[in-house]
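Hello,

I think I submitted the zinc ion job twice by accident. Can you confirm which output corresponds to this input? Input:
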Amino acid sequence: MLFSEDRFVQRDASYGSIEVICGSMFSGKTEELIRRMRRAQFAKLDVEIFKPTMDTRYHQTDIISHDSNHIPSTPVDHSSAILLLSSSTRVVGIDEAQFFDDELPNTCNTLANRGIRVIIAGLDMDFKGRPFGPIPALMAIAEHVTKVHAVCMRCGAPANYSYRIAKDKQKLLLGEKESYEPRCRACFYRNNE
Ligand SMILES: Nc1ncnc2c1ncn2[C@@H]1O[C@H](COP(=O)(O)OP(=O)(O)O)[C@@H](O)[C@H]1O
Ligand SMILES: Cc1cn([C@H]2C[C@H](O)[C@@H](COP(=O)(O)O)O2)c(=O)[nH]c1=O
Ligand SMILES: [Zn+2]
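Support: Only one job matched these inputs. Its output is below.
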């Protein structure tokens, strides 16, 4: 079922909220983030979208999904910049949040306590199946967590792991289908132990 904004409205409008969209690569995190941001724009709310400067796979500024859906964003080096750049904003979106520093949860809390709706998209696990960056802490403090799934490239089941095809072992390796494929638990661990 699609996330519905109507299901959760703060009674005290001086407070906002935190939403996390997480899952494996190709699971539709960016598409879902774009969908929610576009609905906020249709509602004529001021929105700002941020991504980490290091994620330059498709475009210097735009956020672009694997289906070429896109929306403009502001690249930032550190989560503290998001606070400085969000003063007159009602809705803040953050993509590829797994790449941000450990201050991101505090930043998001500060924004939400200023009345801002914060929507975060990011990988919950790295290629080893381990929690990734600030995402687990964000999931803990969020009002809403949406876990989306890709389709396992081996068996067609819902996939929640990002299997790395490339031989590189370092945690950070930007890439797409040439380097990763989504897999279900069985197909991920059967070939990865
Ligand atoms: N194995 C797969 N499972 C699901 N979607 C896939 C797969 N491979 C490619 N896609 C495409 O990826 C799109 C999702 O892209 P995107 O929102 O950028 O995902 P994410 O941000 O989670 O990596 C899907 O709509 C689909 O067209
Ligand atoms: C699993 C994993 C992924 N990455 C990189 C690969 C991509 O550049 C992004 C994820 O992009 P998506 O929008 O979710 O498809 O993260 C990485 O650096 N390390 C990993 O373990
Ligand atoms: Zn599978």
